[in-house]
């Protein structure tokens, strides 16, 4: 018997009223995400990625279908309690600008009533986890951080209450390619170390291929295909095949330019 998926979308619909009529942002999407899985959601702008993600923590309510987390229908769960079980990382970190790094990271434990000493210890533990030097970063304001450091703080804040699930909306999109690559692989290591289940939106199919166990491809509110990088590479679905063109071309160019690994 298959284990119960940690997150399960079952025939989910969400329509928004737009100036030119109703927009089916998410249209009959069914998708299971297993515990421990790293799932990337890709698709062009407006394809429904953010809506799909926000449905999982009830920032958006569906018009139809259901979403279960660990077998529980989330419409029966209290939204604030649900969101405490799920860490969220946004583009640019979305840190509170007037609060120090430590205050930003410690906000959820503090709201949950954790004693100040325990919050401070947790903040230090999280700074270690995201590889930011405690003394150098604890008391800084977000403005005094680089984009990469801000995202590390965003990840630390998302992990502060010990969630099993982390939702990420274009977390590394605004970073330079080198920082983006480092942060992506550092986060992937954290995901494995902490046994997290991660759902990450990215516009970058190459990033999705390199980081994720499975990739869900969205188009006009539909889930076109969900599969492993190898399955997507072999897909005959026209839109998926088109998406794979760029990484394929880049891989061929790089293979021609770079010496074979291990040849030196
Ligand atoms: N609150 C809203 N009110 C009206 N329409 C909305 C709302 N949120 C999203 N939409 C519409 O739903 C569709 C899907 O939007 P969504 O933000 O989920 O796409 P996306 O794939 O995340 O896009 P992007 O990559 O640009 O962030 C779009 O047509 C968008 O305009």
UniProtKB/TrEMBL annotation:
Could you tell me the superkingdom of the organism this chain comes from? Answer: Bacteria
Note one Pfam family from the annotation. ABC_tran
Q: Which InterPro entries match?
A: AAA+_ATPase, ABC_SmlMolc_Importer, ABC_transporter-like_ATP-bd, ABC_transporter-like_CS, P-loop_NTPase
Care to name a GO molecular-function term for this sequence? ATP binding
Q: Supply the alphabetized keyword list.
A: ATP-binding, Nucleotide-binding, Transport
Q: Which residues form the ABC transporter domain?
A: 7-245
Q: What is the similarity comment for this entry?
A: Belongs to the ABC transporter superfamily.
- Biological role stated in the UniProt entry: Involved in beta-(1-->2)glucan export. Transmembrane domains (TMD) form a pore in the inner membrane and the ATP-binding domain (NBD) is responsible for energy generation.
The protein in question is named ABC transporter ATP-binding protein
């Amino acid at each position: 018997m298959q284990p119960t998926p940690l997150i399960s979308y079952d025939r989910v619909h969400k329509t928004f009223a737009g100036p030119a009529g109703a927009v089916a942002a998410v249209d009959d999407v069914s998708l299971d995400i297993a515990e421990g899985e790293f799932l990337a959601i890709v698709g062009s702008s407006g394809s429904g990625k953010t809506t799909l993600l926000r449905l999982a923590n009830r920032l958006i309510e569906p018009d139809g279908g259901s979403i279960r987390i660990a077998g529980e229908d989330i419409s029966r769960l209290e939204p604030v309690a649900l969101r405490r079980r799920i860490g969220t990382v946004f583009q640019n970190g979305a840190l509170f600008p007037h609060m120090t790094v430590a205050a930003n990271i410690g906000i959820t434990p503090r709201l949950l009533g954790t004693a100040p000493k325990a919050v401070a210890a947790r903040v230090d533990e999280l700074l270690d986890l995201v590889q930011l030097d405690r003394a150098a970063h604890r008391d800084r304001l977000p403005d005094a951080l680089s984009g990469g450091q801000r995202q590390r703080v965003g990840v630390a804040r998302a992990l502060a209450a010990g969630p099993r699930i982390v939702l990420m909306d274009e977390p590394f999109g605004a970073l330079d390619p080198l920082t983006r690559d480092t942060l992506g692989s550092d986060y992937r290591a954290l995901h494995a170390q902490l046994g997290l289940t991660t759902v990450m939106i990215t516009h970058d199919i190459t990033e999705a291929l390199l980081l994720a166990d499975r990739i869900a491809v969205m188009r006009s509110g539909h889930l076109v295909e969900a599969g492993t990088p190898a399955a997507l590479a072999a897909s005959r679905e026209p839109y998926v095949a088109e998406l794979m063109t760029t990484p394929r071309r880049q891989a061929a160019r790089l293979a021609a330019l770079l010496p074979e690994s291990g040849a030196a």
